[in-house]
Amino acid sequence: MAVYYRTKGFIFKKDDRSEADRVFSIFTKDFGKIEIRARAIRKITSKLRAGIDKFYFSEVEFIQGKNHKTLTDVVAIEKNDCSQNFEKMIIYNKIAEVLDKFIKGQEKDEKLWNLISDIFKKINSQKLTADATRLLYFYFMWNFFSELGYMPETQKCVKCCEKLNPYNLYFSNKDGGIVCKNCTAENYYDKETCSEGCRRINSDVVKILRLIFNKDWQVLSRLKIEHLSLNLLNQLSENYYLYMLSSHSFS
Ligand SMILES: [Zn+2]
User: Fold this and answer.
1) What is the distance in A from the centroid of ligand 1 to the CA of 164?
2) Residue 185 Cα to ligand 1 middle (Å)
3) Which residues belong to the signal peptide in this entry (predicted)?
4) Can you give the pTM of this predicted structure?
5) 138 C-alpha vs ligand 1 centroid, how far in Å?
6) How far apart are the CA of 175 and the centre of ligand 1, in A?
């Protein structure tokens, strides 16, 4: 007799298979990242259609077959239709990309689940400005890497452990955190080191990163952030993301 499993999850990817099937990639509460095949779901008569789509938050029921999981029932908890909201669309797409690229195997991860649920609540419970939406993505991305065990040092220089001088701050992907001028200077003209992320940042970016790691969204969402600092944070985040992607194999 088949065993039925039931769990909640965030649907972050869908791929069409054969004539009318579809495979959904879902980050679930109880099993981590899984793929579930929905048979004949692309037919108009399918009862499963209403409960599942990309970016939905749904309760899914499935059976585990020899080769894959098959969807047997699904109820949508939150239908996230982003077609009218460009900012939301961007953040959902970026979260989906991170989950797809950095989580390979099936494994329950309560901390990641809590982070994703937390982001969902924040996106849906308040009217976010364009800047706050960008900031919320950074909040997700940095905390995501932190949960995976790659939280950068932001309290002191990662190399010499000295207190940071707010006027001379650098960030090194390779060393995993903020580097003071003294420690940067010796390698500053070393191209390799520079290309691996010894980039200049400012004290606002450090402040924002600390708030992100403290998960202090109350303060973060009310911050008035200068355009320059937001751009610096944007470049730093993109750079760190690419560095993680190229230097670690997540499987
Ligand atoms: Zn130092």
Assistant:
1) 8
2) 10
3) none
4) 0.90
5) 25
6) 11
200 sits in the region (left: phi over 0; alpha: psi -120 to 50; else beta) called: beta
Beta bridge partners of 99: none
The Å distance, Cα 199 to ligand 1 centre, comes to 14
Residues in a beta bridge with 203: none
CA 167 / ligand 1 centre spacing (Å): 13
From the CA of 158, how far away is ligand 1's center (Å)?
A: 7
- Name the segment(s) of the chain with CATH classification 2.40.50.140: 1-125
Structural contact between residues 168 and 183, judged by C-beta atoms closer than 8 angstroms: no
Ligand 1 centroid from CA 237, angstroms: 21
Per-residue pLDDT tens listing for the chain (251 residues): 789 999 999 999 999 999 999 999 999 999 999 999 999 999 999 999 999 999 999 999 999 999 899 999 999 999 887 777 788 888 899 999 999 999 988 899 999 999 999 998 898 877 788 888 889 999 999 999 999 999 999 999 999 999 999 998 999 998 999 999 888 865 554 444 444 457 889 999 999 999 999 999 999 998 999 999 999 999 999 999 999 999 876 65
Closest by CA to 198, choosing from 211, 182, 213, 210, is: 182
List helix spans (H) across 103-226.
110-125, 130-147, 181-185, 191-195, 203-213, 217-220
Read out DSSP for 189-202?
T-HHHHHTT-EEE-
| 3-state SS record for 15-45 | EEECCCEEEEEEEECCCEEEEEEECCCCCCC
DSSP bridge partners of 170: 179, 200
